[in-house]
Amino acid sequence: MDTKRFPFKRITVRAIILRRADGALYGVLHLPTSSFSPPGGAIESGETTEQTLLRELEEEQIRLIAPDAGWVERIAVDYFHGKHELNIWYIFLVDDVQQGTSEEILEGRWLDQSQDVWYPGMREKIFLAIRQYLPDMLRLDVTVLESW
Predict the structure, then answer these.
(1) Residue 40's CB: how many other CB atoms inside 10 A?
(2) CATH of domain 3-147
């Protein structure tokens, strides 16, 4: 996709992965000094957003255990102004994740919803997306987010 006509440099697709048993979120580190983010990456020419996400999960050696089929319908959009990046997020419910060795990922792990270890501003947006589509999976009171 040619992003020159838009106010962003690239489009990424990411997976918000929730564990059914406890609502934990799966996050990945790309750099030793960075914060966690949902796994995913940039759209390549000719790809759909779903194709991009499945390719990125494969490249990052992330295997979802018992993902639900509803993820295709649960879409949230975010603009990350720090990188001039449009993010399309899909929300998955899974039993677990198997993380293989990947050159792109330094660490992948389950994070309790109370942990604020995400890229700046990302945590709140993740919770708003969960609240919209899977409110029963939200483990925190997010009334402070009502004004977003």
Answers:
(1) 24
(2) 3.90.79.10
